[in-house]
Input
Amino acid sequence: MTQDPLRWEVLDSTYISRHQYFTARRDRCRRPDGVIVPEYYVVELPPSVCVVALTEDREAVMIRQYRHPIAESILEIPGGFIDPGEDPATAARRELLEETGYAFQDIVPLGRIAANPGLLDNYTWLFLATGGKKVQGQHLDPNEEIEIILQPLDEVREMVLGNRLAQALHTVCFFYAFRYLGDL
Amino acid sequence: MTQDPLRWEVLDSTYISRHQYFTARRDRCRRPDGVIVPEYYVVELPPSVCVVALTEDREAVMIRQYRHPIAESILEIPGGFIDPGEDPATAARRELLEETGYAFQDIVPLGRIAANPGLLDNYTWLFLATGGKKVQGQHLDPNEEIEIILQPLDEVREMVLGNRLAQALHTVCFFYAFRYLGDL
Output
């Protein structure tokens, strides 16, 4: 990877939070034209994955989860953070198994995307998983409370096209998945 | 709007940053089942807009902007935060004019989406603007450095379908815009 010619030089970084669930820093930077940016806030997140996951019967494995920042429980697709040293496809299989108890025959990479690159430093890798079969129960983190919902793919397609999924990363993942499946 | 039955009760909020450009808090919450969530971090952002903006000649008005968190300059669409009391469509027209110097004949709402509802509390309203005409120069904030690029819609379409836009909100906005235009 070549360095971006517009890249800012970081003169100074101060962490304002280093909590296990929330790392944020304030940077002082110099632009290539010499201008000083006195304060730029960055939230550090590990890279993550999300997966459009289809069972053997072509149902989508969806999850319903409460999201405190927007005070709503919303319909999502499985996903999570990539562990250090883990490759994205392995993380996708691991998260699928932990969150849903399903194992999948094929995992197809669909690309990667940034949720909010003006504030967050991570990318999310997008996948399509097919041939899913329930093989175990859920193994959730203490804070996770996740309801599994199997939904016919046609229904989910109408939801996505009708802007009834709330999560941008998940909507993008579905658009690429439908395109891969020749169904857009 | 009815309240979500899974809604958490916020027992205590502590702001860890209240900077003009970065507001973050730590909440202590009680779930409906009585379980206490001791620490949940939320970054507060105003609601925002982004716009697939087409000129009279059906070129997309794209912007290239350096994004410090990912240390890359990326191709984006115009957008920004909604001012207090402003409606989303007005914010879209204002941001288009300020960032690009273009005024548009029609603004079509395409829905709304959340960039990362596990951490950020805002939604982004999506629009398609058509019939754009250059009417003035850019009026940028001191920290903004934005290059305008006019790109034929077909080229942008290939970029979006090929996962060559980095910003999830913008990719979603394009998918809905192409669908609205009957070109997906």
Summary: Chain A has a mean pLDDT of 95. Chain A touches chain B through 61 residues (CB under 8 Å). Helices of chain A lie at 88-100, 153-161, 168-180. The longest helix of chain A spans residues 88-100.
